[in-house]
Design goal:
Chloramphenicol Acetyltransferase; alpha+beta; 2 domains; about 475 residues
Length: about 475
Protein backbone atom coordinates (compact mmCIF):
# COMPACT_ATOMS: atom_id res chain seq x y z
CA UNK A 1 0.00 0.00 0.00
CA UNK A 2 1.13 3.55 -0.54
CA UNK A 3 0.95 6.61 1.65
CA UNK A 4 -0.29 9.91 0.30
CA UNK A 5 -1.37 13.44 1.13
CA UNK A 6 -1.09 13.59 4.88
CA UNK A 7 -2.61 10.28 5.95
CA UNK A 8 -0.82 6.96 6.23
CA UNK A 9 -2.49 3.80 5.02
CA UNK A 10 -1.73 0.39 6.46
CA UNK A 11 1.78 -0.72 5.60
CA UNK A 12 3.30 -4.14 5.09
CA UNK A 13 5.39 -5.55 7.96
CA UNK A 14 8.75 -3.81 8.09
CA UNK A 15 7.53 -0.71 6.25
CA UNK A 16 7.22 2.85 7.54
CA UNK A 17 6.00 5.90 5.72
CA UNK A 18 5.70 9.60 6.42
CA UNK A 19 5.02 12.73 4.41
CA UNK A 20 8.05 15.01 4.12
CA UNK A 21 6.90 18.61 3.87
CA UNK A 22 8.89 21.72 3.01
CA UNK A 23 10.98 22.82 5.97
CA UNK A 24 8.93 25.09 8.24
CA UNK A 25 5.55 23.98 6.82
CA UNK A 26 3.51 22.09 9.42
CA UNK A 27 0.49 21.51 7.19
CA UNK A 28 -0.79 22.55 3.79
CA UNK A 29 0.47 26.06 3.16
CA UNK A 30 -0.57 28.79 0.77
CA UNK A 31 -2.38 27.55 -2.29
CA UNK A 32 -0.53 29.54 -4.91
CA UNK A 33 -1.15 28.14 -8.39
CA UNK A 34 1.19 28.06 -11.35
CA UNK A 35 0.52 27.09 -14.94
CA UNK A 36 2.48 24.21 -16.42
CA UNK A 37 3.09 23.98 -20.14
CA UNK A 38 0.93 21.54 -22.09
CA UNK A 39 4.11 20.12 -23.65
CA UNK A 40 4.99 18.98 -20.11
CA UNK A 41 1.50 17.88 -19.09
CA UNK A 42 1.00 15.69 -22.17
CA UNK A 43 3.62 13.33 -20.71
CA UNK A 44 1.22 12.61 -17.84
CA UNK A 45 -1.30 10.76 -19.99
CA UNK A 46 0.71 7.73 -21.10
CA UNK A 47 0.88 4.46 -19.14
CA UNK A 48 3.64 3.78 -16.60
CA UNK A 49 5.31 1.56 -19.19
CA UNK A 50 6.22 4.71 -21.16
CA UNK A 51 8.05 6.39 -18.27
CA UNK A 52 5.10 8.58 -17.25
CA UNK A 53 6.10 8.16 -13.58
CA UNK A 54 9.65 6.83 -13.95
CA UNK A 55 11.93 5.51 -11.23
CA UNK A 56 15.57 6.35 -10.58
CA UNK A 57 17.24 3.96 -8.13
CA UNK A 58 20.64 4.43 -6.47
CA UNK A 59 22.62 1.88 -4.47
CA UNK A 60 24.04 3.66 -1.43
CA UNK A 61 27.03 2.18 0.48
CA UNK A 62 25.61 3.79 3.63
CA UNK A 63 22.74 6.02 4.69
CA UNK A 64 21.48 8.32 7.41
CA UNK A 65 17.68 8.24 7.31
CA UNK A 66 17.15 11.42 9.29
CA UNK A 67 19.71 13.31 7.22
CA UNK A 68 17.98 12.21 4.04
CA UNK A 69 14.62 13.38 5.33
CA UNK A 70 15.75 16.72 6.78
CA UNK A 71 17.72 17.62 3.65
CA UNK A 72 14.73 16.65 1.49
CA UNK A 73 12.58 19.05 3.54
CA UNK A 74 15.12 21.82 2.81
CA UNK A 75 15.03 20.98 -0.90
CA UNK A 76 11.22 21.12 -0.92
CA UNK A 77 11.29 24.53 0.71
CA UNK A 78 13.43 25.87 -2.15
CA UNK A 79 11.57 23.96 -4.88
CA UNK A 80 7.85 24.13 -4.01
CA UNK A 81 6.64 22.41 -7.18
CA UNK A 82 8.04 19.11 -5.89
CA UNK A 83 5.82 19.27 -2.80
CA UNK A 84 2.76 20.56 -4.67
CA UNK A 85 -0.10 18.80 -6.40
CA UNK A 86 -1.55 18.93 -9.88
CA UNK A 87 -5.21 19.96 -10.04
CA UNK A 88 -8.25 18.54 -11.78
CA UNK A 89 -6.57 17.05 -14.84
CA UNK A 90 -5.48 20.54 -15.91
CA UNK A 91 -2.23 22.40 -16.52
CA UNK A 92 -2.36 23.95 -13.07
CA UNK A 93 -0.21 22.97 -10.13
CA UNK A 94 -1.07 24.04 -6.59
CA UNK A 95 1.95 24.93 -4.46
CA UNK A 96 0.28 23.81 -1.25
CA UNK A 97 3.22 22.15 0.49
CA UNK A 98 1.37 18.82 0.55
CA UNK A 99 4.73 17.06 0.60
CA UNK A 100 6.47 13.94 -0.66
CA UNK A 101 5.76 10.41 0.64
CA UNK A 102 8.94 8.87 2.05
CA UNK A 103 8.65 5.13 2.60
CA UNK A 104 11.29 3.08 4.46
CA UNK A 105 11.47 -0.70 4.03
CA UNK A 106 13.75 -2.86 6.16
CA UNK A 107 15.01 -5.81 4.14
CA UNK A 108 15.99 -9.11 5.76
CA UNK A 109 18.85 -9.48 3.26
CA UNK A 110 22.42 -8.87 4.38
CA UNK A 111 23.38 -6.31 1.72
CA UNK A 112 21.92 -4.29 -1.13
CA UNK A 113 22.43 -5.97 -4.52
CA UNK A 114 25.65 -4.94 -6.26
CA UNK A 115 23.79 -4.87 -9.57
CA UNK A 116 20.31 -3.37 -9.72
CA UNK A 117 18.08 -5.35 -12.06
CA UNK A 118 15.39 -3.55 -14.05
CA UNK A 119 12.62 -5.81 -12.83
CA UNK A 120 13.60 -5.03 -9.24
CA UNK A 121 12.26 -1.49 -9.73
CA UNK A 122 8.83 -2.97 -9.04
CA UNK A 123 10.16 -3.69 -5.53
CA UNK A 124 12.37 -0.66 -4.96
CA UNK A 125 10.05 2.01 -6.40
CA UNK A 126 6.84 3.50 -5.05
CA UNK A 127 4.91 4.03 -8.28
CA UNK A 128 1.72 6.10 -8.50
CA UNK A 129 -0.76 5.87 -11.34
CA UNK A 130 -0.61 8.81 -13.80
CA UNK A 131 -4.36 9.53 -13.63
CA UNK A 132 -4.24 9.97 -9.86
CA UNK A 133 -1.24 12.30 -10.20
CA UNK A 134 -3.00 14.42 -12.84
CA UNK A 135 -6.08 14.82 -10.66
CA UNK A 136 -4.06 15.73 -7.57
CA UNK A 137 -4.95 12.68 -5.49
CA UNK A 138 -1.37 11.36 -5.73
CA UNK A 139 1.96 13.20 -5.40
CA UNK A 140 4.19 14.17 -8.33
CA UNK A 141 7.15 12.62 -6.50
CA UNK A 142 7.68 9.68 -4.12
CA UNK A 143 10.73 8.36 -2.31
CA UNK A 144 11.40 4.81 -1.12
CA UNK A 145 14.44 3.74 0.91
CA UNK A 146 15.16 0.01 1.20
CA UNK A 147 17.70 -0.66 3.94
CA UNK A 148 19.93 -3.71 4.51
CA UNK A 149 21.59 -5.25 7.54
CA UNK A 150 25.14 -4.16 6.59
CA UNK A 151 24.10 -0.48 6.42
CA UNK A 152 23.77 -0.29 2.64
CA UNK A 153 20.53 0.83 1.00
CA UNK A 154 18.70 1.43 -2.26
CA UNK A 155 17.24 4.92 -2.56
CA UNK A 156 14.58 5.15 -5.26
CA UNK A 157 12.95 8.37 -6.45
CA UNK A 158 9.87 8.30 -8.66
CA UNK A 159 8.46 11.44 -10.24
CA UNK A 160 5.85 12.46 -12.75
CA UNK A 161 7.27 13.31 -16.15
CA UNK A 162 4.99 16.36 -15.98
CA UNK A 163 7.18 17.57 -13.11
CA UNK A 164 10.69 16.52 -14.18
CA UNK A 165 12.29 15.11 -17.28
CA UNK A 166 15.45 13.02 -16.93
CA UNK A 167 17.83 15.99 -16.78
CA UNK A 168 15.67 17.70 -14.15
CA UNK A 169 15.52 14.52 -12.05
CA UNK A 170 19.31 14.31 -11.90
CA UNK A 171 19.57 18.04 -11.16
CA UNK A 172 17.17 17.61 -8.25
CA UNK A 173 18.96 14.52 -6.90
CA UNK A 174 22.34 16.23 -6.88
CA UNK A 175 20.89 19.37 -5.25
CA UNK A 176 19.30 17.21 -2.54
CA UNK A 177 22.62 15.36 -2.10
CA UNK A 178 24.57 18.60 -1.63
CA UNK A 179 22.12 19.66 1.08
CA UNK A 180 22.49 16.23 2.72
CA UNK A 181 26.27 16.73 2.82
CA UNK A 182 25.73 20.05 4.58
CA UNK A 183 27.00 22.12 1.69
CA UNK A 184 25.74 25.55 0.66
CA UNK A 185 23.80 24.86 -2.54
CA UNK A 186 22.09 27.25 -4.94
CA UNK A 187 18.61 25.92 -5.78
CA UNK A 188 17.88 25.04 -9.41
CA UNK A 189 15.56 27.26 -11.45
CA UNK A 190 11.98 26.06 -10.96
CA UNK A 191 10.03 29.14 -12.01
CA UNK A 192 9.44 29.38 -15.73
CA UNK A 193 9.91 33.06 -16.57
CA UNK A 194 12.78 32.17 -18.90
CA UNK A 195 10.67 29.48 -20.57
CA UNK A 196 7.77 31.89 -21.03
CA UNK A 197 10.14 34.30 -22.78
CA UNK A 198 11.03 31.73 -25.47
CA UNK A 199 7.51 30.30 -25.94
CA UNK A 200 6.37 31.46 -29.41
CA UNK A 201 3.00 33.04 -30.14
CA UNK A 202 0.80 31.59 -32.88
CA UNK A 203 2.41 33.60 -35.67
CA UNK A 204 5.94 32.61 -34.62
CA UNK A 205 4.85 28.99 -34.14
CA UNK A 206 3.68 28.82 -37.75
CA UNK A 207 6.86 30.52 -38.91
CA UNK A 208 8.91 27.88 -37.10
CA UNK A 209 6.74 25.14 -38.58
CA UNK A 210 7.52 26.35 -42.09
CA UNK A 211 11.24 26.32 -41.30
CA UNK A 212 11.30 22.94 -39.54
CA UNK A 213 8.73 20.80 -41.37
CA UNK A 214 7.91 22.92 -44.42
CA UNK A 215 4.20 23.38 -43.66
CA UNK A 216 1.96 24.97 -41.04
CA UNK A 217 0.70 23.02 -38.05
CA UNK A 218 -3.04 22.74 -37.49
CA UNK A 219 -5.54 21.64 -34.91
CA UNK A 220 -6.54 18.02 -35.36
CA UNK A 221 -9.48 16.03 -34.01
CA UNK A 222 -6.99 13.18 -33.57
CA UNK A 223 -5.45 14.91 -30.54
CA UNK A 224 -8.52 14.73 -28.24
CA UNK A 225 -9.48 11.32 -29.64
CA UNK A 226 -6.02 9.90 -28.91
CA UNK A 227 -6.07 11.46 -25.44
CA UNK A 228 -9.45 9.88 -24.71
CA UNK A 229 -8.34 6.43 -25.90
CA UNK A 230 -5.16 6.62 -23.83
CA UNK A 231 -7.16 7.52 -20.72
CA UNK A 232 -9.28 4.39 -21.20
CA UNK A 233 -6.39 2.01 -21.88
CA UNK A 234 -3.86 3.38 -19.39
CA UNK A 235 -5.39 1.78 -16.24
CA UNK A 236 -5.22 -1.65 -17.90
CA UNK A 237 -1.63 -1.15 -19.04
CA UNK A 238 -0.64 0.15 -15.61
CA UNK A 239 -2.09 -2.89 -13.88
CA UNK A 240 -0.10 -5.18 -16.18
CA UNK A 241 3.04 -3.14 -15.48
CA UNK A 242 2.64 -3.10 -11.69
CA UNK A 243 1.42 -6.66 -11.15
CA UNK A 244 2.85 -8.64 -14.07
CA UNK A 245 6.00 -6.67 -14.81
CA UNK A 246 5.03 -6.12 -18.44
CA UNK A 247 7.68 -4.00 -20.14
CA UNK A 248 10.22 -3.72 -17.31
CA UNK A 249 13.08 -5.79 -18.75
CA UNK A 250 15.57 -4.89 -21.47
CA UNK A 251 18.76 -6.51 -22.70
CA UNK A 252 21.75 -5.17 -20.80
CA UNK A 253 25.39 -4.87 -21.85
CA UNK A 254 28.36 -3.52 -19.87
CA UNK A 255 31.30 -1.69 -21.45
CA UNK A 256 34.34 -0.81 -19.36
CA UNK A 257 35.95 2.61 -19.50
CA UNK A 258 38.81 1.12 -21.54
CA UNK A 259 36.42 -0.51 -24.00
CA UNK A 260 34.57 2.78 -24.44
CA UNK A 261 37.90 4.55 -25.01
CA UNK A 262 38.85 1.92 -27.62
CA UNK A 263 35.50 2.41 -29.31
CA UNK A 264 36.03 6.13 -29.58
CA UNK A 265 39.54 5.68 -30.97
CA UNK A 266 38.32 3.21 -33.60
CA UNK A 267 35.37 5.45 -34.52
CA UNK A 268 37.39 8.66 -34.89
CA UNK A 269 38.04 9.34 -38.60
CA UNK A 270 41.61 9.78 -39.78
CA UNK A 271 40.57 11.94 -42.74
CA UNK A 272 37.53 12.98 -44.70
CA UNK A 273 35.36 14.55 -42.01
CA UNK A 274 34.65 18.20 -41.43
CA UNK A 275 36.31 18.47 -38.01
CA UNK A 276 38.09 15.13 -37.60
CA UNK A 277 36.49 13.90 -34.38
CA UNK A 278 33.38 12.27 -32.93
CA UNK A 279 31.94 12.38 -29.43
CA UNK A 280 31.93 9.34 -27.15
CA UNK A 281 28.15 9.12 -27.46
CA UNK A 282 28.35 9.25 -31.27
CA UNK A 283 30.99 6.51 -31.24
CA UNK A 284 28.81 4.33 -29.00
CA UNK A 285 25.76 4.91 -31.19
CA UNK A 286 27.74 4.03 -34.31
CA UNK A 287 29.00 0.82 -32.72
CA UNK A 288 25.60 -0.27 -31.38
CA UNK A 289 23.78 0.46 -34.62
CA UNK A 290 26.38 -1.21 -36.85
CA UNK A 291 27.05 -4.23 -34.64
CA UNK A 292 23.34 -4.94 -34.12
CA UNK A 293 22.72 -4.56 -37.85
CA UNK A 294 25.43 -7.13 -38.60
CA UNK A 295 24.03 -9.48 -35.96
CA UNK A 296 20.34 -9.14 -36.82
CA UNK A 297 19.99 -8.23 -40.50
CA UNK A 298 20.34 -10.60 -43.47
CA UNK A 299 23.32 -10.05 -45.77
CA UNK A 300 20.89 -9.02 -48.54
CA UNK A 301 19.72 -6.03 -46.48
CA UNK A 302 20.58 -2.50 -47.58
CA UNK A 303 21.81 -1.84 -44.07
CA UNK A 304 19.91 1.41 -43.67
CA UNK A 305 19.66 2.50 -40.05
CA UNK A 306 17.45 5.10 -38.39
CA UNK A 307 18.89 6.76 -35.31
CA UNK A 308 16.83 8.87 -32.90
CA UNK A 309 18.72 10.95 -30.37
CA UNK A 310 16.86 12.47 -27.41
CA UNK A 311 18.54 15.84 -26.95
CA UNK A 312 18.53 18.42 -24.17
CA UNK A 313 17.87 21.82 -25.80
CA UNK A 314 18.35 24.00 -22.70
CA UNK A 315 21.64 25.41 -23.95
CA UNK A 316 20.43 25.91 -27.51
CA UNK A 317 17.39 27.95 -26.40
CA UNK A 318 19.49 29.84 -23.83
CA UNK A 319 17.73 28.50 -20.75
CA UNK A 320 19.68 28.03 -17.50
CA UNK A 321 21.51 24.72 -17.44
CA UNK A 322 19.68 23.85 -14.20
CA UNK A 323 16.21 24.84 -15.43
CA UNK A 324 13.71 22.27 -14.15
CA UNK A 325 11.29 21.16 -16.85
CA UNK A 326 8.73 18.42 -17.31
CA UNK A 327 10.00 18.02 -20.84
CA UNK A 328 13.19 19.66 -22.02
CA UNK A 329 13.59 17.27 -24.93
CA UNK A 330 13.88 17.41 -28.67
CA UNK A 331 14.10 14.42 -30.98
CA UNK A 332 16.59 14.18 -33.83
CA UNK A 333 15.86 11.29 -36.20
CA UNK A 334 18.02 10.69 -39.25
CA UNK A 335 19.23 7.98 -41.62
CA UNK A 336 22.56 6.21 -41.17
CA UNK A 337 23.36 4.35 -44.43
CA UNK A 338 25.60 1.42 -45.34
CA UNK A 339 25.76 -0.18 -41.92
CA UNK A 340 26.83 -3.56 -43.33
CA UNK A 341 29.61 -2.27 -45.57
CA UNK A 342 30.94 0.97 -44.07
CA UNK A 343 33.73 1.16 -41.52
CA UNK A 344 32.93 2.09 -37.92
CA UNK A 345 34.60 5.48 -38.46
CA UNK A 346 32.43 6.13 -41.53
CA UNK A 347 29.26 5.29 -39.60
CA UNK A 348 30.35 7.48 -36.67
CA UNK A 349 31.20 10.35 -39.04
CA UNK A 350 27.76 10.12 -40.63
CA UNK A 351 26.16 10.41 -37.18
CA UNK A 352 28.49 13.23 -36.15
CA UNK A 353 27.74 15.28 -39.27
CA UNK A 354 24.00 14.95 -38.69
CA UNK A 355 24.32 15.83 -35.02
CA UNK A 356 26.62 18.80 -35.38
CA UNK A 357 25.43 20.43 -38.58
CA UNK A 358 21.97 19.09 -39.46
CA UNK A 359 19.22 17.42 -37.42
CA UNK A 360 21.00 17.74 -34.07
CA UNK A 361 22.58 21.16 -34.54
CA UNK A 362 21.98 23.85 -31.88
CA UNK A 363 19.95 25.94 -34.35
CA UNK A 364 17.69 22.99 -35.22
CA UNK A 365 17.28 22.09 -31.54
CA UNK A 366 16.28 25.68 -30.78
CA UNK A 367 13.66 25.85 -33.50
CA UNK A 368 12.26 22.39 -32.95
CA UNK A 369 11.82 22.73 -29.19
CA UNK A 370 10.13 26.11 -29.47
CA UNK A 371 7.89 24.69 -32.20
CA UNK A 372 6.96 21.78 -29.90
CA UNK A 373 6.26 24.22 -27.09
CA UNK A 374 4.15 26.59 -29.20
CA UNK A 375 2.22 23.90 -31.06
CA UNK A 376 1.47 21.95 -27.87
CA UNK A 377 0.17 25.07 -26.07
CA UNK A 378 -2.42 25.49 -28.82
CA UNK A 379 -3.06 21.72 -29.02
CA UNK A 380 -2.20 21.67 -32.69
CA UNK A 381 -1.03 18.52 -34.36
CA UNK A 382 2.74 18.27 -34.82
CA UNK A 383 4.18 14.90 -35.80
CA UNK A 384 7.79 15.47 -34.77
CA UNK A 385 7.55 12.57 -32.35
CA UNK A 386 6.85 10.32 -35.32
CA UNK A 387 9.57 11.60 -37.64
CA UNK A 388 10.76 8.07 -38.24
CA UNK A 389 7.32 7.08 -39.55
CA UNK A 390 8.18 8.98 -42.71
CA UNK A 391 11.45 7.07 -43.09
CA UNK A 392 11.97 3.45 -43.91
CA UNK A 393 14.97 1.73 -42.39
CA UNK A 394 16.10 -1.83 -41.80
CA UNK A 395 16.92 -1.24 -38.13
CA UNK A 396 16.11 1.57 -35.69
CA UNK A 397 17.88 2.70 -32.53
CA UNK A 398 16.74 5.38 -30.08
CA UNK A 399 19.23 6.69 -27.51
CA UNK A 400 18.63 8.54 -24.26
CA UNK A 401 22.04 9.28 -22.76
CA UNK A 402 22.47 9.60 -19.00
CA UNK A 403 26.09 8.41 -18.76
CA UNK A 404 27.51 11.88 -18.02
CA UNK A 405 25.38 12.38 -14.89
CA UNK A 406 27.11 12.99 -11.59
CA UNK A 407 26.47 10.08 -9.22
CA UNK A 408 25.28 11.69 -5.98
CA UNK A 409 26.73 11.31 -2.49
CA UNK A 410 24.20 11.91 0.30
CA UNK A 411 26.91 12.10 2.97
CA UNK A 412 27.57 8.38 3.41
CA UNK A 413 29.56 7.69 0.25
CA UNK A 414 28.91 8.07 -3.46
CA UNK A 415 26.28 5.74 -4.85
CA UNK A 416 27.86 2.78 -6.64
CA UNK A 417 25.06 1.57 -8.92
CA UNK A 418 22.24 3.35 -10.71
CA UNK A 419 19.16 2.27 -12.63
CA UNK A 420 16.20 3.99 -14.24
CA UNK A 421 13.37 2.90 -16.51
CA UNK A 422 13.06 6.34 -18.15
CA UNK A 423 13.47 6.65 -21.90
CA UNK A 424 14.49 4.32 -24.74
CA UNK A 425 17.97 2.76 -24.97
CA UNK A 426 19.90 4.04 -21.96
CA UNK A 427 23.60 4.68 -21.46
CA UNK A 428 23.88 4.74 -17.67
CA UNK A 429 27.02 5.31 -15.58
CA UNK A 430 28.29 2.14 -13.96
CA UNK A 431 31.24 1.21 -11.79
CA UNK A 432 34.22 1.62 -14.11
CA UNK A 433 32.20 1.95 -17.30
CA UNK A 434 28.77 2.29 -18.89
CA UNK A 435 25.69 0.06 -18.73
CA UNK A 436 23.70 -0.05 -21.95
CA UNK A 437 20.01 -0.97 -21.66
CA UNK A 438 18.82 -1.78 -25.17
CA UNK A 439 15.24 -0.76 -25.87
CA UNK A 440 13.18 -3.60 -27.31
CA UNK A 441 12.24 -1.46 -30.31
CA UNK A 442 15.69 -2.00 -31.85
CA UNK A 443 15.00 -5.73 -31.98
CA UNK A 444 11.44 -5.33 -33.23
CA UNK A 445 12.60 -3.01 -36.01
CA UNK A 446 15.00 -5.70 -37.22
CA UNK A 447 12.17 -8.28 -37.06
CA UNK A 448 13.86 -10.00 -34.11
CA UNK A 449 10.99 -10.95 -31.81
CA UNK A 450 12.38 -13.94 -29.91
CA UNK A 451 13.51 -13.18 -26.36
CA UNK A 452 16.28 -15.78 -26.62
CA UNK A 453 17.60 -14.35 -29.89
CA UNK A 454 17.56 -10.85 -28.38
CA UNK A 455 19.63 -12.06 -25.45
CA UNK A 456 22.05 -13.82 -27.81
CA UNK A 457 22.44 -10.69 -29.91
CA UNK A 458 23.08 -8.50 -26.87
CA UNK A 459 25.68 -10.95 -25.58
CA UNK A 460 27.33 -11.16 -29.01
CA UNK A 461 27.81 -7.39 -29.11
CA UNK A 462 30.99 -7.80 -27.10
CA UNK A 463 32.54 -10.02 -29.78
CA UNK A 464 32.25 -7.06 -32.20
CA UNK A 465 34.24 -4.68 -30.01
CA UNK A 466 37.20 -3.20 -31.90
CA UNK A 467 40.65 -4.12 -30.69
CA UNK A 468 42.85 -1.05 -30.44
Amino acid sequence: MSCCDGFLQAQKPGERCEIIRPQGVADNGASKEINMYFFECMFGYAPLLFATYPALALRLPGFDEQRLKSSLAKALQALPTVAGRFRDDSKKMVLNGAGVPFKVVESSESAAPEVLEERSLLTFADFYRPGAVRHGSAPPMSIKLTTYKDGSAVLCMCRSHMLFDGTSAWIFLNYWARLARGEAATPPHWEKDEVHAVCPDLEKTQELAQEVIGKPVKWSILVPIATGVIKILTPIADTLFLHAGVGVERQRVFFSDQEVANLKTAATPATGSRDGWVSTQEALCAFLLQALAKLLLPSSSKGLGLLTMLLDPRKSVKLPADQLLGCGLVFATFEVPNLLTATLAEVATSIHEAMQYKEGSPDTQNKKWRLLLGAAERKMHFGVFQEENNMKGDIMLAINNSSKRELPDFGSGKCNAVLTNAGPTLLLPAKGGIEVFLDNSVFRSAKCYSTSSQAEAAKALRSHLPQV
